[in-house]
Amino acid sequence: xxxxxxxxxxIGAAILIGTIWSIRxxxxxxxxxxxLEDVREVDVPYVCSVCGLSLTVxxxxxxxxxxxxxxxxxxxRV
Length: 78
Ligand SMILES: [Zn+2]
Description:
With 78 residues, the protein is of the alpha+beta class.
């Protein structure tokens, strides 16, 4: 009997935590729109270390450009 109560409490706690997480996720909303006036022309080539796909980033915000991901890996700047 106590094992059944324990599992019921664990399932209830999991549902409660999942519900709270979902509400926080929805309440946060999408990230702010990027300021398009800060976008500059750049020429940064990347290659995927797994499949060899290459691409060039031609427009980005000022500062450090985060490498795009392909095949679940960060692409390598060449
Ligand atoms: Zn790839």
